[in-house]
Each structure stands twice: as C-alpha cells, then as structure tokens.
Prior knowledge:
The chain contains 1 helix and 3 strands. By secondary structure, it is an alpha+beta fold. The chain has a 3-stranded antiparallel beta sheet, with no helix packed on it. The longest helix is centred in the N-terminal third of the chain and has 18 residues, at 2-19. It starts with a helix and ends in a 5-residue tail after the last strand.
Amino acid sequence: MKKIKSIALVAVFASSMFFAKPAEAKHHSGNYVDDAGCLHVWSYDTAFFGLIKYNVEEYVFCGVAF
C-alpha cells in the first residue's frame, strides 16, 4: 500500500509539471491624457498569473502640444 501511495504522488507531481499552465512574466503598458492635458505613460510587469506586480513605472509629461 505504501508503494502505491508513493507512485501516485510521483504521478501527480509529474503530470502537474507537464500539464501546468505557463506562469511566465508578462509586460503591460499604456497611456492616457488627464483633465489637465498631461500625458501619463505607465508600464508594469506581472508574474505568477498576475499575483506579483513589479517594475511599476509611470511618467508624466505636462505642457506637451499635440
């Protein structure tokens, strides 16, 4: 019985390695113009299905003529 449990445990871990969804990092970015006419450019990266957010950056450009 102990041998069957260990084989089942190994099978579960092996199948989870082969059939797991990718948890790779993704880059998100965009921009918008606020009411004062300033341009905001933002970007951030996520990992582990969006659970971890890092490299958050936002740049603000005011007084830019279009």
